[in-house]
Amino acid sequence: MAAPVTPKPAKRVMITRIQRCEEMQRQFNHAISEHAKAKRAAKARALQKKAKRYCAGKRQAQGIRAYAEALRLLGVQPIDQ
Predict the structure, then answer these.
(1) DSSP assignment, residue 50?
(2) Which pLDDT score is estimated for 5?
(3) What burial class does residue 62 get, using C-beta atoms within 10 Å of its C-beta: 0-12 exposed, 13-18 middle, 19+ buried?
(4) pTM of the model
(5) What is the sign, positive or negative, of the torsion defined by CA atoms of 37, 38, 44, 48?
(6) Half-sphere exposure at residue 18, Cβ-oriented, CA atoms within 13 angstroms
(7) CA-CA distance, 37 to 77, in Å (whole number)?
(8) What is the sign, positive or negative, of the torsion defined by CA atoms of 12, 17, 20, 22?
């Protein structure tokens, strides 16, 4: 009888903060196109502009948080990769 095979844990691919910023921006662009008429869409767009500046200026952690907050304002749960 063969010994039971234990499955290897799935390897999680590490992404950089810059890649995370890019993914959050794509998610925001998709969400804003669907929720453009939302009550807090203007505030979400303002946060998105701030997030873009943070991500471009080597402050990616702040940019990621700003994108997440902008998505929440639109009623969208940020996708965690």
Answers:
(1) H
(2) 65
(3) middle
(4) 0.80
(5) negative
(6) 3
(7) 18
(8) negative
CB 54 within 8 A of CB 10: no
Q: How far is CA 13 from CA 10, 25, 56, 81, in A?
A: 9, 20, 23, 9
The structure tokens 């700003």 sit at 66
Each domain of the chain, given as residue ranges in start order, spans 17-73
With beta carbons less than 8 A apart as the criterion, state whether 24 and 51 touch: yes
Cα–Cα distance measured from residue 70 to residue 73, given in angstroms and rounded to the nearest whole number: 5
Could you read off the pLDDT of 5-43 as tens digits, one per residue?
666 666 667 889 999 999 999 999 999 999 888 889 999
Q: How many residues does the chain have?
A: 81
Answer with the residue of higher pLDDT: 51 or 39: 51
